[in-house]
Automatic annotation (TrEMBL):
InterPro entries xref list: ATPase_dyneun-rel_AAA (IPR011704), CbbQ/NirQ/NorQ/GpvN (IPR050764), CobS_N_dom (IPR025865), P-loop_NTPase (IPR027417)
Signal peptide stretch: none
Source species of the chain: Leucothrix pacifica
PANTHER family: MAGNESIUM-CHELATASE SUBUNIT CHLD, MOXR FAMILY PROTEIN
Listed name of the protein: Cobaltochelatase subunit CobS
A UniProt-annotated Pfam family: AAA_5
Gene Ontology MF, one: ATP binding
The ATPase dynein-related AAA domain, residue ranges: 64-189
Cobaltochelatase subunit CobS N-terminal domain mapped to chain residues: 6-37
TM annotation in the entry: none
């Protein structure tokens, strides 16, 4: 069996054939799938510009950050590119519970020949650095300052990582790749939507070679994705309902941009609505359970107006005021 530390891309694949992008680019890929390679989602729709940015990361070892509103599929986009390249992938969510020790490593007590001994357990950074893997830092702008300065060490292309407690310097595997996703590009919680995000050190943001933005998909593409996710609605009658769902989601996004709403519908919420409709077969009930109950009560009349415009029927008044 091949040692994962010795694995390397052993083939070149066409961007045109693999992603349908009309460019004469060849990308390194693995011919065999490792246990850490994400599963391929055949329903996933790739954004050409974002895909090219991510592929540049795999091809030329560029540090790539994908920025955008929630629910656009930023992390999934990276994973699905990796899945088609058979590139091992590790994803870490930088929530408030991730500590410096989680990333670097720590001493742990283990049993060896019936005796308790202290042994250093590698954190996710040294583990990933030594392997041909794509490390994704999810919610990058939510990381704690002490954690972010640990990450800064590896943002240089040939950045070595020093384990001070072990007197050891780790050199990155030639096929280690680094990606991140963020909602705010390190600018903080400017619009009140992303509580917990941090203002990032500009010197650190500057170390990301490529920053790309993933926006919501065009109307018809989003309909196609929801239809692929909820296959029982992939028929002529229900596609009209799906189109109305996506249209309503677009109205909430416009309303959020205009300051009329504080909660918008992401594609993830639209899929939840379609899945709940599949259960209840009641558009109003499934809408309330999927989205309306997340809204401020003062804004529900606005949302009810959006609902009426998209489905030519009134949302029951009890729903609009948040009553059972």
């Amino acid at each position: 069996m091949t040692n994962i530390l010795e694995m390397k891309p052993d083939q070149q694949v066409s961007v045109r054939d693999l992603f349908g992008i009309d460019m004469d680019l060849m990308v390194p890929a693995f011919s065999e799938r490792d246990a850490h390679v994400p599963e391929i989602d055949k329903a996933y729709r790739f954004n050409a510009d974002v895909t090219l940015a991510i592929l540049a990361g795999f091809m030329k070892d560029r540090r790539v950050m994908v920025q955008g509103l929630h629910g656009t599929g930023k992390s999934t986009h990276i994973e699905q590119v990796a899945a088609r390249l058979n590139w091992p992938c590790t994803r870490v969510n930088l929530d408030g519970h991730i500590s410096r020790l989680d990333l670097v490593g720590k001493d742990t007590i283990v049993l060896r020949d019936g005796k308790q001994v202290t042994e250093f357990q590698e954190g996710i950074i040294p583990w990933s650095l030594q392997r041909p893997t794509a490390l994704i830092f999810d919610e990058y702008d939510a990381g704690r300052p002490d954690v972010m300065f640990v990450i800064q060490r590896i943002l240089e292309r040939d950045g070595k990582f020093t384990l001070l407690d072990q007197n050891k310097v780790i050199r990155p595997n030639p096929y280690f790749r680094l990606f991140a996703t963020a909602n705010t590009v390190g600018l903080g919680n400017l619009n009140g939507l992303y509580h917990g995000t941090q203002l990032l050190n500009h010197a650190q943001v500057d170390r990301w070679n490529i920053v790309t933005t993933l926006n919501y998909l065009p109307h018809q593409e989003e309909v196609e994705i929801v239809a692929a996710r909820v296959e029982t609605m992939n028929n002529e009658r229900d596609r009209g309902i799906l189109s109305g769902m996506v249209a309503l989601a677009e109205l909430t996004r416009n309303g959020f941009a205009a300051g009329d709403l504080s909660t918008l519908m992401s594609p993830r919420t639209v899929i939840s609505w379609a899945e709940n409709y599949e259960i209840f077969r009641d558009l109003g009930v499934s809408f309330r359970l999927s989205y309306l109950n997340k809204c401020d009560e003062a804004e529900r009349s606005t949302v009810a107006e959006y609902y009426q415009r998209c489905f030519d029927e009134e949302l029951p008044e009890s729903y609009a005021v948040g009553m059972s």
